[in-house]
Amino acid sequence: MAVKYAKPKGTQDILPEASGSWLYLEETLRRTVGLYGYREIRLPTFEHTEVFARGVGETTDVVGKEMYTFLDKGDRSITLRPEGTAGVARAVLENGILGSAAMPFKAYYLQSCFRYEKAQKGRLREFHQLGIECFGANDPFADAEVIAVADQILKEVGVKNVRLEINSIGCKKCRPAYHAALKEYFAQYTDKLCPTCLDRLDRNPMRILDCKSEVCHAIGEGAPVMLDYLCEDCVAHFDTVKSCLDELGVAYTVNPTIVRGLDYYSNTVFEFIHTGVGTQGTICGGGRYNGLIEDFEGPATPGIGFGMGIERLLLALEDEGVQLPAIPGPRLYLANIGEAGRKKAAVLCAALRTAGIHAEYDIVGRGLKAQMKYANKIGAQYTMVLGDDEVAKGEARLKDMATGKETVTAFDALIAALN
Description:
Blueprint: H1 16-35, E1 39-40, E2 46-48, H2 49-55, H3 61-66, E3 69-71, E4 77-80, H4 85-94, H5 97-100, E5 105-114, E6 126-135, H6 140-157, E7 162-168, H7 175-186, H8 195-203, H9 214-220, H10 232-248, E8 253-254, E9 266-274, E10 282-288, H11 292-295, E11 303-309, H12 310-319, E12 332-336, H13 338-354, E13 359-361, H14 368-377, E14 382-386, H15 388-393, E15 395-400, E16 406-410, H16 414-418
Helix pairs in contact: 1-6, 6-10
């Protein structure tokens, strides 16, 4: 059968057969972040474009190349969210949270994001993220705790082949000297850098280190590293983060090349990388963004958080052969013969559902054999056949589909029998 309409490139349909894994994963994520005091925040799917241009950074690939931006009917520039942190920062300021809520303010979100980039395995144009954001804590123990949240999530869902890499990219005090060193280094290669990186050279040379061009990436491997330019405060902060992770038993390696792809990052940055997901192996990334609220013209407020890709997390689980629990079939399927049996099945199903028991009956008009085949297909744990005799007696045989055992059960005792 020819399909006239198809989903847009870089999107996916999550069908009921797969959604059970998503639900289990989401429930695990919510439960785990809740242990650390994070509460859910729900943000608009789109924002005014300047929220992302100001927060994410105009020199980033996200803002420069990947955002879905359009003019609405009021001729305002609107952008589908490419990430979550900038929107949370906007919400924190707009809703007066910094002046009213207990600090630190901890929030999480589970949401879809949108980036126009080359669609491939593990990189979709509409993708889903768990994100946590912590505002109001500048202590390095906050950095370690945020990293520990991600580490515990990965352990809870069963991901094993993953490594944590961390780095420090300094602060406003020590970064200018590093930028000067980068400019001096990359100035030797202006004839080889891509046009985008030539523009970055003066505006934000650190972005060159994040370029996806193989040529620029190769040049960047010989560039100076931020760790050699950290001020005393940043060195002390990073040392304490590492010490705390050691105490928590969170294994890591220091990777001085990590800069992350968004301009709001400062100090601690980190990535959890899975060894089996190929080029899209980063399944979680984050760091500190102490200047973000100030970029939105708010008061100086430290912040730290991460984003975890749900699709990439599922790919990692698939690579390791981890089977997430599926949604179970109905507790009871009520097959029926005749009009009286069908009406009684409907009434019993209603009572069972009111009692919180998943029950189903035939609403298509199938014969008995087809009904039983359907019950097997949907994974019913028990079945019962209702006909005129059963309705008259007020009882029927309750069959355990796993063992084949049958027990005569009165209709008024059905709820107790299934609990």
